[in-house]
Structures are given as structure tokens and as C-alpha cells.
Design brief:
Bound molecules: uracil
Strand order of the largest sheet: 1-4-5-13
Distance between the termini: 37 Å
Radius of gyration: 21 Å
Low-confidence stretches: none
Largest sheet: 4 strands, mixed
């Protein structure tokens, strides 16, 4: 078999066989197939697409490209959650301790930022001392004792995805249904949870811009989960504007902590309650979503979810003082500048992708695989879509360390925001649920 022939076949619109997909994944993982040929195939897939069958083969080949974790030593039903990526999406930081405090086991493998979207591991690393690299033993032990752990994808967990993820990020081949489905589900299969809840984002800041594409992606992933015996439910949620008010690593951790203390933004809290409810139902901890929501709300209000978060951070080496007093201990940018309303009216748009790009430009995300990121920088919104503004009201604050970058970010942020004379139509937070 030759990689050249696979590229040609896909370029010409034909479906690849299981053997051909296995050949590509094992050759690319071992380094026999170079990046330039893999990139060419990705671009051919991007334009010619894959059938459902090809996507399922790709997912399994990627899942088995390394170790498949055996979590059978964790007692109880293990439920994982994964987001297809958004801006200001700090859901995992709130959701995992919230659901764990209600008795569900959450063994979570998370990633780093991709494109204009942030990553849970980068965010957590803004807590001094936090360790995302855990041994299998530590990971299992923490889930058994605390109810949760969040670890970075180890080198040997779906290594094909690790390489392809970075390659897609730099070759404009991220936003393809089959490639996203295979990337997400290969990691979920390899990381060993019994059941999966997916947060599939749609809107300007999501890889799937239209609700229709988000539904197709969700269906594809729910079906793949079912085919390997892992019951999967997908929630289609809005990512047309950033989630919550904070975008940027340390800023998002602060907002997550506020939410766990019961005074977070409504959209973030609501989404966590919705996703968490499905996790409780999948784990047979609640009989239905309504009962599960009540249960979770009680965990939030009683402080039990916050207590679980503190234990989880301490168990992974994080400074507990940073959780109690994040303003004092989390990295903070040196300077701030404001975006002020240039007119009176209603905020009719805060384009999530542009806001994410502005945050990346400040240094919160990676331009190339090897970039180091600035955990302190980011954007605080003061207004959300639908809010009334008067001219010169503060719309957002940019937290920066480099004035040149702040200037560029301010220009993009200004393009992201629209003010109109009338109130815009309200978009739902949740568009739908895809079940098996
Ligand atoms: N999240 C993933 O894990 N993979 C993708 O391709 C996109 C979002």
C-alpha cells in the first residue's frame, strides 16, 4: 500500500477501506508517513468528506493507536464529558466537581487550546502547582476517593489524535464533521469511561457554524458511541457569543470558581446544570433530568461542589489558597484597557470567534504548536447580547502585558461587537438533545 494512492483516491472522491485507514493511522503514528502527506490527505478529506463507515473506521483506528485505559478499578458508573470547543468555555471546571459531588465518577481527560478556542488543561495550569500529568495509579485513585480527576492526554492515549490534532490546527482542516467526530470519540473510547455526554457547540465561535451541521456531528458521535457500547448523549449548545463573561485562562478559572460558589453567570450555570443532569441520568443517579437538575442545584448551593473542586485541585498539586482567593494567587495581567460603546442601543452581536482570536492575539492561545502561552491575559465582557448600552459604557476590558498586542486585540474585538437600535432576537442556550 502507498500513501500516495490513498491521497489520490480520496482526492478523487472515493471512500477509503478499513485497511487503508488503518495503514494511514499506524504509519502516521509511527512516523513512517510524513506530515506533508498526512496534511494532503486531511485536505482531501476536508473537501471530499468521509462516509459514516469511514468515520467509524477512522475513530477506532485512532482510539487503538495507543493505550486504551482500563478503568475497571474505579467503582460505579464512569461518565465523561467532552466539548467540541468554544470561547469562554470553562464548563468542565464547574461540571466535573458538580457532578462528582452528586456521586458520579468523572475520569476526565482534557486537551489544550485549539485554534481560537481554549483548553481545560491550559486553564487549570494557571493555578500555581497544578499537575495535569498523572500516573494511571494516581488518576484511578483520585477518581475513587474524590469522584473526579482531570488529566492531560498522555503521550500514549490516542497518539494518532494528538499528532493529527496539532496538524489540523496548522493546516485549516479542523472544521470537518468526520475529523472532529473521530478526534473526540477516539479519545473518549481510549480514556475508558462507560458513558459520555457531549457538548456540541454551534454558532460563530464553534467549529460547526450552523445548527444543522452541529446536529449532524452530534448524531455521528452518538452513533459511534453506541456502536462501541458506550451510551452517548449530545447537547447542542450556543456558541454564537462567548460563554460567561471571561475569556482567557486565569480569568476563566476565576469565573469557574465564582460559579462553584453560586454566583457565576446564568448561561454558564444553566449549561452546567443541563449537561450535568444528563450525566446523572446516564449514571442512574436520578430518574429524570428534572430531578437531576434539582439535585445538582442543591450541591451547588450547599457548597459541596466547591468542596469537591478544592479537593481535586489539592490532590493534583494545586495551591489551595489560590482556590480560596483567586484574585490574590492567580496570574494577573499588568495592564487593562476598555472597549467603550460608540453609540447607544442594544448589543446585537459579540462574535465568539473574533473574541477568541482577539484573546489568542493577546497571548492566551498558541500560534504554533510550540508557543508558550500567557495565562494572565484575556478579555472580561461587561455586556452580553441583548443588553442595553449607552454611548461610552464599558463593553469589555482587555487584560494585557504587551501594548502592541492589546492594540491589535482591541481592533478585532471592536469588529466582533455590534450595537443596533433594536433588541436582537434571543438565541436559545440549548438547541436540542441528540440521544441514541
Ligand atoms: N475537540 C476535539 O477533541 N477534537 C476536535 O477535532 C475538535 C474539538
Amino acid at each position: 500500500m502507498r500513501m500516495y494512492d490513498l491521497i489520490l483516491k480520496k482526492r478523487n472522491g472515493q471512500a477509503l477501506s478499513k485497511e487503508e485507514i488503518d495503514f494511514f493511522i499506524s504509519g502516521y503514528t509511527s512516523g513512517k508517513i510524513p506530515d506533508y502527506q498526512a496534511a494532503a490527505l486531511l485536505m482531501a478529506i476536508y473537501f471530499q468528506k468521509m462516509t459514516k463507515e469511514e468515520t467509524a473506521h477512522l475513530t477506532l483506528a485512532m482510539a487503538h493507536s495507543g493505550q486504551v485505559l482500563d478503568l475497571s478499578r474505579i467503582q460505579g458508573v464512569k461518565v465523561d464529558k467532552h466539548s467540541t470547543g468554544g470561547v469562554g468555555d470553562k464548563v468542565s471546571l464547574v461540571l466535573a466537581p458538580l457532578v462528582a459531588s452528586a456521586g458520579v465518577k468523572v475520569p476526565k481527560m482534557s486537551g489544550r487550546g485549539l485554534g481560537h478556542t481554549g483548553g481545560t488543561i491550559d486553564k487549570l495550569e494557571s493555578i500555581p502547582g497544578f499537575q495535569a500529568q498523572l500516573s494511571e495509579e494516581e488518576f484511578i485513585n483520585n477518581v475513587n476517593t474524590i469522584g473526579m480527576a482531570i488529566a492531560g492526554q498522555t503521550a500514549n492515549l490516542a497518539p494518532a489524535d494528538k499528532k493529527l490534532y496539532a496538524l489540523r490546527d496548522t493546516t485549516a482542516t479542523v472544521d470537518n464533521i468526520s475529523l472532529i467526530a473521530a478526534s473526540v470519540m477516539s479519545k473518549k473510547i481510549a480514556s475508558g469511561a462507560d458513558k459520555i455526554v457531549l457538548d456540541v457547540k454551534t454558532g460563530s465561535g464553534a467549529f460547526m457554524k450552523s445548527e444543522e451541521d452541529a446536529m449532524l456531528l452530534a448524531r455521528e458521535m452518538v452513533d459511534i458511541g453506541g456502536s462501541v457500547g458506550k451510551e452517548t448523549i449530545a447537547v447542542i449548545s450556543d456558541m454564537d457569543q462567548p460563554l460567561g463573561f471571561k475569556i482567557g485562562n486565569a480569568l476563566e478559572v476565576k469565573e469557574a470558581i465564582a460559579t462553584l460558589k453560586g454566583h457565576g453567570p446564568h448561561d454558564l450555570e444553566d449549561l452546567c446544570l443541563t449537561l450535568g443532569s444528563y450525566m446523572l441520568v446516564l449514571a442512574h443517579r436520578s430518574k429524570d433530568v428534572a430531578e437531576a437538575k434539582e439535585n445538582l442545584l442543591a450541591k451547588l448551593q450547599s457548597g459541596q461542589a466547591f468542596e469537591t473542586f478544592k479537593r481535586f485541585i489539592a490532590a493534583q498539586g494545586g495551591n489551595p489558597l489560590a482556590v480560596e482567593d483567586p484574585d490574590k494567587y492567580l496570574p494577573q495581567a499588568k495592564e487593562t484597557t476598555d472597549l467603550k460603546a460608540w453609540d447607544s442601543g442594544f448589543i446585537s452581536r459579540i462574535d465568539a470567534e473574533k473574541t477568541g482570536l482577539a484573546t489568542m492575539l493577546l497571548g492566551a492561545g498558541r500560534e504554533v504548536k510550540e508557543s508558550t502561552i500567557d495565562l494572565s491575559v484575556g478579555i472580561s465582557l461587561h455586556k452580553k447580547v441583548g443588553d442595553k448600552v449607552k454611548a461610552l459604557d464599558k463593553i469589555a476590558t482587555i487584560h494585557y502585558n504587551d501594548p502592541l498586542k492589546a492594540e491589535q486585540a482591541l481592533t478585532i474585538l471592536k469588529e466582533a461587537v455590534e450595537i443596533s437600535p433594536t433588541s436582537p432576537e434571543k438565541r436559545p442556550l440549548v438547541f436540542g438533545i441528540v440521544t441514541p
